[in-house]
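In these records, each integer encodes one residue's backbone shape. Here is one protein:

___
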Amino acid sequence: MPIIDLSDTLQNDKDWTPWWARNSVTYQNHKFGRLAIWMLFRITPKYLRGGLGWANDVIKLSTHGTTHMDAPWHYAPTCGGKPAKTIDQIPLDWCYRDGVVLDMRHKNHGEAITVEDVKLALDKINYKLKPFDIVLIHTGNDRRLGTPDYFTHGCGVSAEATHWLIDQGIKVMGIDSWGWDVPLPVQAQQAKASGRNDIFWAAHFVGIDKEYCQLERLTNLDQLPSHGFKVAAFPLKVKNGSAGPARVVGIIED
């Protein structure tokens, strides 16, 4: 039963990540642990097997700073006129379901994935969506991980396609890019040029009307079949959180 890791690696990323999205991992080695044990318990190295203490790590990150699941609360305070769910309120049975990969690698930078694109991709793999499937959009943008272009380049999903997926009973959908929408610099330019308020973050704002979750910053979707696998995507239980980092995997059924 092959298990495919679909998650980014959490690490210090200041060399390529914008300041507002950086993660920080402070590593405390076994010598540091030895000192901590002395400070806490006044235990000297002679009482420690090998003369060393424990290792520890201190992490500073946004809940959106690595592979994660967005909760409806991320999009707006309400969904359909009711309080939007935070990440600790997401039903766990949404997070382990049959998966399907839709290949959108033909889409160019700045293009939106349309309803027609989604339907054609489903026809190509001869698959009919069923409620609660986890739909994964394969753009290939994870190849830009480790470069500043990761945050500014690629395609994204339109609001109309997001509505359509939700209307098929989909609760969780994911993408191998930094965000679900067309890259924000592109949307910002389009919104300011048009003077409209229905362009910037349009697919995310679908969550004002309809309840759904996004998986963002996925990787390795090219290692999955188009269907016939499970997705496990359990987010950290962050109280009142807008998102939760997740170790997302694809489980290929024998």
Q: What stands out?
A: The longest helix spans residues 30-41. The chain has two domains: 22-59, 66-250.
